[in-house]
Amino acid sequence: MSSPKAAAKSARRPAASVKPKAAAKTAATKPKAAPTGLSAEAIKLADEIERAFKKSDDAISEQAMQALMGTLCRVYSAQVENGSKYTPIAEGRVVSPTGVMVTASGLLRAANLAVFELGMWQSWTGR
Asked: What's the CA dihedral at 122, 98, 53, 113 to 10 degrees?
């Protein structure tokens, strides 16, 4: 059973038929060059991790996960502070809502922050 807030939020989402048109328009107006250098290597690494993870939950060590997550958090936040507007997960990538919540919760715990503090920060900054 969903809450009234969840039902209202679902009702505000655009119809599925609207999304492909918007995505096609964006792709047509702003062609993206193929990634090179470190960006290409990062995409290749992400693909390798995905393939290995499908075979084993132990595909990447705790230490490696923490190193990657910490670096990506620092890079993403620096880019947003410098005016970037993209989200950390590309539209169309399959990441479950549970996966996002577990990760967000872990990041907050690692920084010794509470959801309340996140909410206050969002209201102050508009992000």
From this structure: 40
